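Students often ask what a 'structure token' actually looks like in practice. Rather than answer in the abstract, let us consider ABC transporter permease, a protein of 267 residues. Its sequence is given first.
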Amino acid sequence: MLDRGAISKAHHGRGLAEWCRVQVDLVLALIERDVRSRFGETGAGYGLAFLAPLAWIGATYLAFWLIGRTSPVYADTITFIISGLIPYALFRYAVTAVGRARSLARPLMIYPTITEGHVAAAAAVLEFVNGLVLLGIVLALNWVVFGDFEMADPFAFLWGMVLCWALGASYAYALLSLSRINSRIQSIGLVLIRPTFFLSAILFTANELPERILEVLGWNPLLHAVEIARDGMLFHYESRVASAGYALACVAGLLLLAVAANAARRD
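Now compare that with the structural description of the same chain:
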């Protein structure tokens, strides 16, 4: 159940600082509600939520082993997989979480101060926290089971994670907003990102690519974000193509598109 106190404050907020505080209170209340509804009251449900990404990493490692592929850089295979797959998983989970904001918001419309944007923001923040928890679990398992651990620049890796998350959240929010104009847009947009697992430097590095292929794949902002994260994790890798500015410009463009779509819908 949502905290009615947090909701009622939205009616009486005065000034920008108070307004911002109320919005944060609403988002935090929605996060608490989402955690309880998805994972239950105990930690067991929350822990089970990480089995799927762990299985994803295991399946990728098995695929590498079956085809005889090893790490293309001086790092063990598991660490190489983690360096690309964890940031990508954060992107995909942000897309999924924000994309279901409308269905989650419907039963909350009885509260006049809660909007679809609040629900989307709460879902995005929760997935970012989940991504950090997943990262900690995977790094710990890699160290305990295989004795391997790399984190060349934690801040650079975290920055790459933030960019992947922001790209996923902004893309999903843009689709959510555009779907108000045409309901099929969201379904089409979700289909379009399915190949990104194979096109975003998850299973390879951008440095490996021939120049003619990189000229095409380099338009993919997710590739840049993943490369920034990989650069931050691996000691012996330095991306020659990663651009945080390009990824940020794409995030800004997607958010502007969402704002324009929402404004057009209101008109």
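One point worth highlighting: The mean pLDDT is 87. Ask yourself how you might have guessed this from the sequence alone, and why that guess would often be unreliable.
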